[in-house]
């Protein structure tokens, strides 16, 4: 179910939807992460399990990632093409 279209500057467009994030067929899933890219809790853990650990291995190889930056990985076995991880917390604070 489409919730709302959002226009993002620089001609990028996004779409808000409701549903199971690990089952959506989209270009990319954007998800908060910790700076060490350890995917052990909540939605991030569900993404990693469905992706069969491929996403976490790829993300950890790029760690540490400073807060405010993002990385992208393949999506493993997810229907999405990519996973974009954005650190919002230091791992030591997690």
Summarize this entry quickly.
By secondary structure, the chain is of the alpha+beta class. The chain is built from two helices and five strands.
Search tags:
94 residues; alpha+beta; Leucine Aminopeptidase, subunit E, domain 1; 3-stranded mixed sheet; two-stranded antiparallel sheet
Number of extended strands: 5
Which ranges are low-confidence, i.e. pLDDT below 50, for 5 or more consecutive residues?
none
**CATH fold field value:** Leucine Aminopeptidase, subunit E, domain 1
Helix content: 10-25%
Element pattern in H and E: EEEHHEE
Q: For the record, what CATH class applies?
A: Alpha Beta
Q: What overall geometry do the principal axes of the alpha carbons give?
A: globular
Describe this structure in words.
The protein has 94 residues and is α+β, with helices and mostly antiparallel strands. The protein has one domain (25-93): 3-Layer(aba) Sandwich (Leucine Aminopeptidase, subunit E, domain 1), CATH 3.40.220.10. The protein is built from 2 helices and 5 strands; from the N terminus they run βββααββ. It has a 3-stranded mixed beta sheet, covered by helices on one side. The protein has a two-stranded antiparallel sheet with strand order 1-2. The chain is globular, with a radius of gyration of 13 Å. The model has no long low-confidence stretch (mean pLDDT 86).
């Amino acid at each position: 179910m489409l919730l709302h279209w959002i226009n993002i500057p620089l001609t990028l467009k996004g779409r808000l939807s409701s549903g199971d994030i690990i089952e959506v067929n989209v270009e990319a899933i954007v998800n908060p992460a910790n700076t060490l890219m350890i995917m052990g809790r909540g939605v991030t853990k569900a993404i990693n399990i469905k992706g069969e650990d491929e996403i976490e291995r790829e993300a950890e190889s790029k760690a540490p990632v400073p807060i405010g930056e993002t990385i992208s990985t393949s999506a493993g076995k997810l229907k999405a093409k990519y996973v974009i991880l954005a650190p919002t917390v230091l791992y030591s604070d997690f």
